[in-house]
Design brief:
Layout (H helix, E strand, L loop, with lengths): L7 E3 L6 E3 L2 H11 L17 E20 L6 E7 L9 H6 L2 E5 L37 E11 L4 E4 L4 E4 L7
Parallel strand pairs: 5-7
Antiparallel strand pairs: 1-2, 3-4, 3-6, 4-5, 6-7, 6-8
Length: 175
């Protein structure tokens, strides 16, 4: 399912989005727009498994699980607990895990050479290095993540996959 700028987010399941504030969604989208790409599946293996909820979303929260490399596809994955106002991006399985699953694909990681094809993993067609240099944040970091908000039918949870931009924010409660 493809949802545009209208501001729909999943509530209790990927199949049942609910409408949220158009103003909040519009401001989140405008802040993310310069990082958005026309193809939300670029660099993702077996992209058919990902159902796009929002092709360019922003998610803010605290990293609750350290980043880990998947040696099969090269994705770096971690979990982020939502800040107030971002809970609607989780489904039931996400809530059971404590947050949103985030994935940085090899084409956006800092150790690839811009313009060169991604190689060395058991899956093929991972695209070419974008030069985005998306670094995984440490556990406990307060972050803003920008990328496609998707439902992964293989695992049953929602994700930002791929993460096109990750910013470490000032600690909550500080100026």
């Amino acid at each position: 399912m493809l949802v545009g700028c209208g501001g729909s987010h999943p509530k209790n399941s990927a199949a049942g989005p609910t409408t949220t504030s158009r103003t909040a969604t519009t401001s989140r989208r405008s802040a993310a727009a310069k990082y958005c790409r026309s193809d939300p599946h670029q660099g993702v293996h077996d992209a058919y498994r990902l159902k796009v909820i929002d092709p360019c979303a922003t998610f803010v929260g605290t990293v609750i699980e350290a980043a880990e490399l998947d040696r099969n596809d090269g994705d770096v994955t971690f979990w982020v607990a939502p800040d107030h106002g971002y809970e609607s991006m989780l489904n039931g399985k996400n809530r059971a895990k404590g947050g949103l699953h985030i994935e940085i694909v090899p084409m956006d990681q800092p150790d690839c050479e811009p313009g060169q094809p991604i190689k060395g993993y058991s899956v093929n067609n991972l695209g070419v290095c974008s030069g985005a240099n998306v670094h995984p944040p440490p556990r406990g970091a307060h972050v803003r993540v920008i990328g496609p908000h998707v439902y992964d039918s293989w695992v049953g949870w929602n994700e930002i996959h791929p993460a096109w931009k990750i910013e470490i924010l000032a600690a909550k409660g500080r100026a």
